[in-house]
Write a structure and sequence with these properties.
Elements lengths: L12 H6 L4 H33 L6 H15 L4 E3 L2 E3 L4 H22 L3 H26 L6 E3 L1 H24 L3 H4 L3 H31 L1 H11 L3 H13 L1 H12 L4 E3 L2 E3 L4 E2 L7 H4 L15 H17 L3 H26 L11 E2 L2 H21 L12 E2 L2 E2 L14 H4 L4 H7 L50 E2 L2 E4 L2 E3 L2 E2 L2 E4 L2 E2 L10 H5 L7 H7 L19 H20 L1
Antiparallel strand pairs: 1-2, 1-3, 4-5, 4-7, 5-6, 8-9, 10-11, 11-12, 13-14, 14-15
Helix pairs in contact: 2-3, 2-4, 2-5, 2-10, 3-4, 4-5, 4-6, 5-6, 8-11, 8-13, 8-14, 11-14, 13-14, 13-15, 14-15
Length: 578
Amino acid sequence: MSRSLAPPADPPATEAVATQPDGIARLRILCVAAMGTVLASYALLVPAAAAVGWTAGDGLSFDGAFAAAIPLWLAAHQIPLVLAGQPFSVLPLLPTAVLFAVVALGAGWALRRLGGRFRHDGGPVLVGTAGAHAAVAVLGSALLPRAAEVAAQPWAAMVGAGLLAGSAALTGMLRSCGLPPEWRAAPAWLRVGMRAGALALAGLAAVASVLLVVALVTGAQRIVAAYGVLAPTFGDGLGVTLLGLAYLPNAAVGALSWAVGAGFTVGTATISPFDAKPGVPSSFPLLAALPTGVPPLWAPAVLALPVLLGMLVGLSVRRALPVPADRIRATVVAGLVAASGATLLALLAGGRLAAGPYDPVRFPPELIAPATLLWIGGIAAVVVILRRPVDDPVYVEVVDGDREPEAEPEGPVRVPAVADADPDGVVGAARDARPDPSDDPSASGAMDDPIDDPVDGAEACDSEIGDSEACDPVGDRAEGEGRVGEGRVDEGRVDEGPVGGGPVVDGAVAAGPSRTAPDPASAAAPDAVPSPARRRLLGRRRPDRTAEAPAQKHPRTVADLVAERAAAERAARGTDAR
């Protein structure tokens, strides 16, 4: 028995379905994704809690580190806390960003293991992850001892943890498997607007980061003085530094609010590019970096940064969409996305600060939203509405089907003295009154217009036709030759040379197909003036026929002209012989 070398056939659909995990495997993957992200995020916060306890002088204990990590995990979910009976909702955003990344990675991994079908597997992953975090947050808030200085409301813990974990899980699934097919069917302007809004948010974050670095550099002296007062030892300095790093994204949100012109308030202090009202001095390094006097004169110029960002968004929308109406819709979407993102960050970064001298820390969302919408959506809309400056179209004159050049050629143009060479208008009459080949079949072999033939460097003719051999109606030729087309004129006889398609024999032109078909435009309008481009091709200019033409005699045929020329040549040779 011989074995076949053909490749195996594709597996049937039943085998492809069999590769999907069964019910027990699916449950296992969902549990790992849900509880794994909870444990991973909590484990990352235990070292931070241990470092805080060690720098505070409470000593380093394993149980104390795990107990201190519970309120930190709740704070990472942006769950408002109660600190010593006072509200504390200005929570650090850096732990929140770390937890968000952990949940997004876990949800994306689970969706891939389940088969990557967003509609079929995305719902269980989303519900399982958000539900696990919400349940653990409620349990954690309930496990906190009532005698402790930190407490949390169970309902706030459930809502905050569920929303944050659900948002992170959705982000991770979209990043892992892409948009669902039904979402891709959305209008192009909606997708472009969403991307432009994300670009605007990234640009605002970059602008805020730059301004924050500038503020820290300019306030370095005050920051050093605050470290000397608040953290004189190395352990205290390490703890204050870790706390400052955790609140660094909050400070960046304040820089963003300042950059769009909305400003922010810390207790009784108000800071904006147009005005600054100092408050109670603080020994915390980030608060010590706040400006304490009138803003400099260049401060309002910082508004140019979001304006430039809006122009960039408008250019990106303009390049992505060709229809003006779609561009306007996309800019509106981009402005709304940017304004919504900036407002959400302002709400998360601010809050109550234990009813102290720096309470509350507020980044006004009612000012940030319209300002961001103006600088991003408004400027982008102006960019897409204004048309790009382009050169006006050049309208050229079209004569005889030729395009008029923009400039006349330089140098002299030789014009033969056709009027002097043909005083009786014989040649012009023969050309103008030439019969239509469609009407007279016998005239199909008529000689082409000698002026229409391209002549390179032709000289002017003498006063009489045929008196000078320099007047060559066909082209340049050697002296003494009598070539017409390809034939040779000798004693009124032409040896094989087709003239217009038929040979000339004894002064007669035989009928034959025309070698050059008449120009329809020229036939329709014989008096039309050729364009300069055609004049350059001919090497000479036609006489102006627009003027009143003199009275012309009855035209003669080409055969008559050839016979007269042959007679003139015979007479010239007889004179030379005598």
